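Supplementary Note 3. Input sequence used for the single-chain structure prediction.
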Amino acid sequence: VDDRLVLADESADKLLSLLELIPNGVIKKSHVVEGLTETSNNLASVALDSENADTYKVVASTRSSFSGALEAVRRQIATLAKVLGAAVEQDEPYAGWAPDMSSPVVQL
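The predicted structure, written as discrete structure tokens, is reproduced below.
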């Protein structure tokens, strides 16, 4: 085993705690459109950072039809990461969107 690829116990505990606690999947369903996911987070990948061999990069994609809910989940993830000692980088989020209830697609 290459020791450069093995995490110290404390780092491994923090990474596993982050992965255990980060929201993943549907967070809230719509009260307006039956079956529609309103807010969700997808834990997309966990990988050794190619630019820094001492760092793991955790990528998540958060979506919501309401910008307030979207930002709340993003803040929750950022706070969790910071509490566990991780650096946080967040790209611009997908814009929130509400379903157009008059759209024929919604009626399907």
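The first helix runs from residue 9 to 21. The two ends are 55 Å apart (CA to CA).
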